[in-house]
Protein backbone atom coordinates (compact mmCIF):
# COMPACT_ATOMS: atom_id res chain seq x y z
CA UNK A 1 0.00 0.00 0.00
CA UNK A 2 1.42 3.44 -0.86
CA UNK A 3 2.42 5.64 2.04
CA UNK A 4 0.82 9.09 2.07
CA UNK A 5 2.09 12.06 4.04
CA UNK A 6 -0.29 15.00 4.44
CA UNK A 7 1.26 18.33 5.44
CA UNK A 8 -0.90 21.34 6.22
CA UNK A 9 -0.47 24.67 7.93
CA UNK A 10 -0.63 28.43 7.49
CA UNK A 11 1.32 30.41 4.91
CA UNK A 12 5.12 30.20 5.02
CA UNK A 13 5.18 27.91 8.05
CA UNK A 14 7.76 25.62 6.45
CA UNK A 15 5.38 23.03 4.93
CA UNK A 16 6.90 23.14 1.47
CA UNK A 17 10.49 22.82 2.66
CA UNK A 18 9.63 19.88 4.89
CA UNK A 19 7.53 18.24 2.18
CA UNK A 20 10.33 18.48 -0.41
CA UNK A 21 12.92 17.16 2.03
CA UNK A 22 10.74 14.19 3.04
CA UNK A 23 10.01 13.32 -0.59
CA UNK A 24 13.70 13.36 -1.42
CA UNK A 25 14.71 11.39 1.65
CA UNK A 26 12.16 8.59 1.20
CA UNK A 27 11.98 8.58 -2.61
CA UNK A 28 8.34 9.70 -2.57
CA UNK A 29 6.53 11.95 -5.06
CA UNK A 30 5.73 15.48 -3.95
CA UNK A 31 2.81 17.74 -4.82
CA UNK A 32 2.73 21.37 -3.70
CA UNK A 33 -1.06 21.76 -3.86
CA UNK A 34 -0.80 25.52 -3.29
CA UNK A 35 0.64 25.74 -6.77
CA UNK A 36 -2.66 24.45 -8.21
CA UNK A 37 -4.57 27.34 -6.60
CA UNK A 38 -1.83 29.84 -7.48
CA UNK A 39 -2.04 28.75 -11.14
CA UNK A 40 -5.85 28.97 -11.20
CA UNK A 41 -5.66 32.47 -9.67
CA UNK A 42 -3.05 33.55 -12.22
CA UNK A 43 -4.99 32.25 -15.23
CA UNK A 44 -7.68 34.90 -14.80
CA UNK A 45 -11.18 34.68 -16.25
CA UNK A 46 -13.68 32.30 -14.71
CA UNK A 47 -11.83 30.42 -11.91
CA UNK A 48 -13.92 27.26 -12.26
CA UNK A 49 -13.21 27.08 -16.01
CA UNK A 50 -9.52 27.76 -15.27
CA UNK A 51 -9.42 24.90 -12.74
CA UNK A 52 -11.01 22.55 -15.30
CA UNK A 53 -8.51 23.59 -17.97
CA UNK A 54 -5.43 23.37 -15.71
CA UNK A 55 -2.46 21.54 -17.27
CA UNK A 56 0.94 20.61 -15.77
CA UNK A 57 2.52 23.43 -17.84
CA UNK A 58 0.34 25.99 -16.04
CA UNK A 59 2.18 25.08 -12.84
CA UNK A 60 5.42 26.32 -14.40
CA UNK A 61 4.15 29.85 -15.11
CA UNK A 62 6.58 32.52 -13.93
CA UNK A 63 5.52 34.62 -10.95
CA UNK A 64 3.41 31.98 -9.20
CA UNK A 65 5.46 32.29 -6.00
CA UNK A 66 4.84 36.03 -5.62
CA UNK A 67 2.80 37.50 -2.76
CA UNK A 68 0.19 38.75 -5.27
CA UNK A 69 -0.21 35.25 -6.71
CA UNK A 70 -0.66 33.97 -3.13
CA UNK A 71 -3.48 36.44 -2.50
CA UNK A 72 -5.16 35.59 -5.82
CA UNK A 73 -4.82 31.89 -4.94
CA UNK A 74 -6.56 32.28 -1.61
CA UNK A 75 -9.45 34.13 -3.27
CA UNK A 76 -10.10 31.39 -5.85
CA UNK A 77 -9.46 28.71 -3.19
CA UNK A 78 -12.53 29.90 -1.29
CA UNK A 79 -14.79 28.92 -4.24
CA UNK A 80 -16.22 25.44 -3.51
CA UNK A 81 -16.51 24.51 -7.24
CA UNK A 82 -12.84 25.30 -7.81
CA UNK A 83 -11.84 23.01 -4.95
CA UNK A 84 -14.20 20.26 -6.16
CA UNK A 85 -12.58 20.26 -9.62
CA UNK A 86 -9.11 19.73 -8.08
CA UNK A 87 -9.97 16.95 -5.62
CA UNK A 88 -9.63 13.91 -7.93
CA UNK A 89 -6.24 14.90 -9.29
CA UNK A 90 -4.86 15.35 -5.76
CA UNK A 91 -6.33 12.06 -4.51
CA UNK A 92 -4.90 10.14 -7.47
CA UNK A 93 -1.52 11.74 -6.90
CA UNK A 94 -1.60 10.73 -3.23
CA UNK A 95 -1.84 6.97 -3.83
CA UNK A 96 1.14 6.51 -6.13
CA UNK A 97 3.82 3.98 -5.22
CA UNK A 98 6.01 3.99 -3.26
CA UNK A 99 4.52 7.01 -1.53
CA UNK A 100 3.53 10.65 -1.86
CA UNK A 101 3.85 13.85 0.12
CA UNK A 102 1.21 16.53 -0.42
CA UNK A 103 1.32 19.92 1.25
CA UNK A 104 -1.49 22.46 1.47
CA UNK A 105 -4.36 23.47 3.73
CA UNK A 106 -6.88 20.62 3.57
CA UNK A 107 -4.76 17.57 2.79
CA UNK A 108 -5.23 15.84 6.17
CA UNK A 109 -8.83 16.96 6.59
CA UNK A 110 -10.37 16.60 3.10
CA UNK A 111 -8.03 15.26 0.41
CA UNK A 112 -6.32 12.40 2.28
CA UNK A 113 -8.10 11.81 5.59
CA UNK A 114 -6.58 8.32 5.63
CA UNK A 115 -2.95 9.48 5.26
CA UNK A 116 -0.47 7.42 7.28
CA UNK A 117 1.10 10.58 8.66
CA UNK A 118 -0.43 14.04 9.02
CA UNK A 119 1.68 16.99 9.99
CA UNK A 120 0.36 20.43 10.86
CA UNK A 121 3.25 22.85 10.55
CA UNK A 122 3.03 26.18 12.39
CA UNK A 123 5.34 29.06 13.31
CA UNK A 124 4.93 32.47 14.94
CA UNK A 125 3.41 35.04 12.56
CA UNK A 126 6.47 37.32 12.68
CA UNK A 127 8.81 34.42 11.99
CA UNK A 128 6.79 33.32 8.98
CA UNK A 129 6.64 36.85 7.63
CA UNK A 130 10.40 37.34 8.05
CA UNK A 131 11.15 34.07 6.24
CA UNK A 132 8.86 34.79 3.31
CA UNK A 133 9.98 38.44 3.05
CA UNK A 134 13.59 37.29 2.84
CA UNK A 135 12.67 34.71 0.18
CA UNK A 136 10.84 37.25 -1.98
CA UNK A 137 12.99 40.29 -1.15
CA UNK A 138 10.05 42.35 0.15
CA UNK A 139 9.23 44.35 3.28
CA UNK A 140 8.58 42.09 6.36
CA UNK A 141 5.91 44.36 7.88
CA UNK A 142 3.88 44.38 4.70
CA UNK A 143 4.40 40.63 4.37
CA UNK A 144 3.10 40.10 7.93
CA UNK A 145 -0.13 41.93 7.11
CA UNK A 146 -0.53 39.94 3.87
CA UNK A 147 0.06 36.57 5.54
CA UNK A 148 -2.43 37.36 8.29
CA UNK A 149 -5.04 38.43 5.74
CA UNK A 150 -4.50 35.24 3.73
CA UNK A 151 -4.55 32.97 6.82
CA UNK A 152 -7.79 34.57 7.99
CA UNK A 153 -9.39 34.05 4.58
CA UNK A 154 -8.16 30.44 4.47
CA UNK A 155 -9.29 29.65 8.02
CA UNK A 156 -12.68 31.37 7.81
CA UNK A 157 -13.93 29.97 4.50
CA UNK A 158 -16.83 27.54 4.62
CA UNK A 159 -15.30 24.85 2.38
CA UNK A 160 -12.15 23.00 3.48
CA UNK A 161 -10.92 25.70 5.87
CA UNK A 162 -7.33 25.73 7.12
CA UNK A 163 -7.48 23.43 10.14
CA UNK A 164 -5.42 20.69 11.76
CA UNK A 165 -6.90 17.21 11.41
CA UNK A 166 -7.67 15.77 14.88
CA UNK A 167 -4.94 13.15 14.42
CA UNK A 168 -2.29 15.51 12.98
CA UNK A 169 1.07 15.94 14.71
CA UNK A 170 1.69 19.65 15.27
CA UNK A 171 5.22 20.77 14.41
CA UNK A 172 6.15 24.29 15.52
CA UNK A 173 9.13 25.44 13.46
CA UNK A 174 9.50 28.89 15.11
CA UNK A 175 12.69 28.04 16.99
CA UNK A 176 13.93 25.32 14.65
CA UNK A 177 16.46 25.45 11.83
CA UNK A 178 15.40 23.81 8.57
CA UNK A 179 17.60 20.80 9.38
CA UNK A 180 16.03 20.43 12.84
CA UNK A 181 12.48 20.69 11.48
CA UNK A 182 13.25 18.15 8.76
CA UNK A 183 14.91 15.79 11.26
CA UNK A 184 11.77 15.78 13.42
CA UNK A 185 9.56 15.10 10.41
CA UNK A 186 11.90 12.31 9.23
CA UNK A 187 11.74 10.67 12.67
CA UNK A 188 7.94 10.73 12.57
CA UNK A 189 7.87 9.15 9.10
CA UNK A 190 10.34 6.45 10.13
CA UNK A 191 8.25 5.69 13.15
CA UNK A 192 5.07 5.31 11.08
CA UNK A 193 6.84 3.33 8.35
CA UNK A 194 8.13 0.83 10.88
CA UNK A 195 4.58 0.37 12.16
CA UNK A 196 3.32 -0.47 8.63
CA UNK A 197 2.30 -4.08 8.00
CA UNK A 198 4.82 -5.94 5.82
CA UNK A 199 3.80 -5.96 2.10
O1 LIG B 1 3.42 28.70 0.31
P1 LIG B 1 2.28 29.31 1.08
O2 LIG B 1 2.01 28.59 2.34
O3 LIG B 1 2.41 30.79 1.25
O4 LIG B 1 0.98 29.18 0.16
P2 LIG B 1 0.53 28.00 -0.80
O5 LIG B 1 0.63 26.70 -0.10
O6 LIG B 1 1.22 28.13 -2.12
O7 LIG B 1 -1.04 28.31 -1.00
C1 LIG B 1 -1.52 29.49 -1.61
C2 LIG B 1 -2.99 29.60 -1.28
O8 LIG B 1 -3.68 28.52 -1.92
C3 LIG B 1 -3.36 29.47 0.19
O9 LIG B 1 -3.35 30.72 0.88
C4 LIG B 1 -4.75 28.86 0.15
O10 LIG B 1 -5.75 29.83 0.01
C5 LIG B 1 -4.75 28.04 -1.11
N1 LIG B 1 -4.61 26.61 -0.85
C6 LIG B 1 -5.73 25.91 -0.46
O11 LIG B 1 -6.79 26.49 -0.27
N2 LIG B 1 -5.67 24.56 -0.31
C7 LIG B 1 -4.52 23.90 -0.48
N3 LIG B 1 -4.51 22.57 -0.33
C8 LIG B 1 -3.36 24.60 -0.83
C9 LIG B 1 -3.42 25.97 -1.00
TrEMBL record:
SUPFAM superfamilies membership: P-loop containing nucleoside triphosphate hydrolases
Cellular component GO terms, alphabetical: cytoplasm
Pfam families xref list: Cytidylate_kin
Domain Cytidylate kinase: start-end pairs: 5-40, 62-190
Compartment list: Cytoplasm
The family this protein is said to belong to: Belongs to the cytidylate kinase family. Type 1 subfamily.
Single GO MF annotation: CMP kinase activity
Protein name: Cytidylate kinase
Species this chain originates from: Paracoccus salipaludis
Keyword Kinase listed: yes
Enzyme Commission numbers on file: 2.7.4.25
GO terms (BP aspect): pyrimidine nucleotide metabolic process
Residues that hold ATP according to the record: 9-17
The entry's keywords: ATP-binding, Cytoplasm, Kinase, Nucleotide-binding, Transferase
Reactions performed catalytically: CMP + ATP = CDP + ADP; dCMP + ATP = dCDP + ADP
